[in-house]
Design goal:
With 162 residues, the chain is α+β, with helices and mostly antiparallel strands. Helices cover 28% and strands 27% of the residues. Strands 1-2-3-4-6-5 form a 6-stranded antiparallel β-sheet. A hairpin with a 6-residue loop joins strand 5 and strand 6.
């Protein structure tokens, strides 16, 4: 496992609209590459907890619980759909003004279908993630790589106290 920590300056924020696309300029960002195996799932959950509480998100905040569940589901999906011999799964967490982003990137070229709002939750996976993000005023998006196979699945959630 490798980790990166960076602190970036952010330009003016255009309000707190979480329905907009993810910001590419972060106040703070953390990334780690995880193995494409089951042991990475609980590691992703613990990483999100440690990073977000380190950035001041209260340990008892409901949005922190949601962020941990979202990271768990995103990494689990990536593990299921990539091979263990591949280059791994990237977990990226960024703090951007009024929200934070959780992105999981894998090298599988297949793009998942982003469920419509109100989609049946019985199938789990992205439908649960999208509903959870929506319940907090956030959203889920999928971005294909422009330079090769793979994609990033990003969830934006509100930053507590902002």
């Amino acid at each position: 496992m490798t980790g990166r920590w960076s602190r970036r300056r952010s330009g003016p924020q255009a309000g707190g609209d979480l329905r907009a696309e993810p910001s590419r300029v972060s106040e703070q960002a953390f990334g780690v590459t995880l193995a494409a195996e089951g042991g990475s799932v609980p590691l992703a959950r613990r990483t999100v907890h440690a990073v977000l509480t380190g950035w001041g998100v209260p340990a008892n905040a409901a949005v922190l619980d949601a962020a941990q569940l979202i990271a768990t589901e995103l990494v689990l999906n990536a593990v299921r759909h990539t091979t263990a011999s591949g280059p791994g799964i990237d977990l990226l967490i960024a703090l951007n003004g009024h929200h934070f982003d959780i992105t999981v990137h894998d090298r599988d070229p297949r793009l998942p279908v982003v469920p419509a709002a109100g989609a049946a939750l019985r199938n789990g996976g992205l439908a649960v993630i999208a509903a959870l993000a929506d319940g907090f005023g956030g959203h889920l998006s999928v971005t294909p790589d422009s330079t090769g196979p793979g994609k990033g699945v990003t969830v934006l959630l509100p930053r507590p106290g902002r």
